[in-house]
Design goal:
394 residues, mainly beta, 1% helix, 48% strand
Length: 394
Amino acid sequence: MKIAHTLAGAAFAAGMSLAVSADAEILAMMNYETKSPDSLKALKTPIVPQPRREGIAVMDVDPASPNFGNILVDIPLPPDLIAHHLFYNRDMSKIYLTALGQPALHVIDVSQNPYRLKRIETPGCMAQEDIIFSADNKRWWVTCMGSNAVVVGNAETDAVVKNIKTPKNYPHGIAIHDGIDRLLISSTVNAADLGDPGETITAIEASTGTPLKSYKVSKKDSPSGEAPVEVLFVPGANPPLAYVTNMFGGSLWTATWDAAKSDFSVAEAFDFGPVKAGVPLEVYFNDDASRLYVTTANPGMFHIFDISANAAKPKLLKTIPTAGGAHHVGFTKDFGLAFVQNAFINLPGMSDGSITVIDLEKQEIVATIDTLKNAGFNPNSLILLPEWNHLAGH
């Protein structure tokens, strides 16, 4: 059964506290922003342009719920914040919101009801992208694509403790492996215009913040324009292995740890060209890391890989078309459902604004949510609330 939920702006609730129902529900949190004029032109139902607006919405995304697609909480944000992505810490006790427009993180303590945002100043960190946490949940690192830096913080007090200058421009994706004391950071694009794409990932010693070595993730002559964007280690892989998505290169690479040399070797693992998929973005894993999930934004697709035999050689099992801009994904704890957020930084053709619900066992779409889309907004990231959310390797 495929359900299309199409509510207009009236779907936004004024309440600031979470209403809990005895009925079936799965609650997702997403930050949203007004669609760009070019994105609005792509809609079949014209929407009158409105003043720029940003916010955080909590929505019931369970297709079996009577409140399916309804927004239960709507938290306004400053329109010049340019809120970017939502991230959990390791125990899902806090949610962190990065921002492109201001040098500040915002943090939500999920034990508080109603939710409240605490602002954390991060001087010298413009165009914040990704944030990661140490295994003991005591430190965090956030990439600053607009100022070529990584800011290190105390994850218990959220105080900034260090700024690391990166040897390559435009740091975006970041991953940590505590067992080998390494961070991997991608060099992506100029945050101002998406130009000057990088082609490397850089290893940094996590304990000291010392940059060690950069690795080219391209077979092409330099400058290759690959724009590696996200990096994520495979949970439990031995030897340690990370995946890298090349946004402009349309490929998936691996970085494999060599303990004898204390070094990484890089290799191309999958080319999305033959399956006519471009702009690979996010990477996720199931519980036993036998499955790899990757989104591609142009056109929007959700890809399921088998990596049970060899993580370095992912085998594509199925590609599911979603909608333009397939980006972040929320997974239920039992890996029964995946919720794909279809919008990529308001880019024309990659900003559909819908959410695609996928049954992971059947590997098929069971519902589509157009609540934000039809109100003239794009969701920019999506996570499920802690009761339902699986970190999926993040």
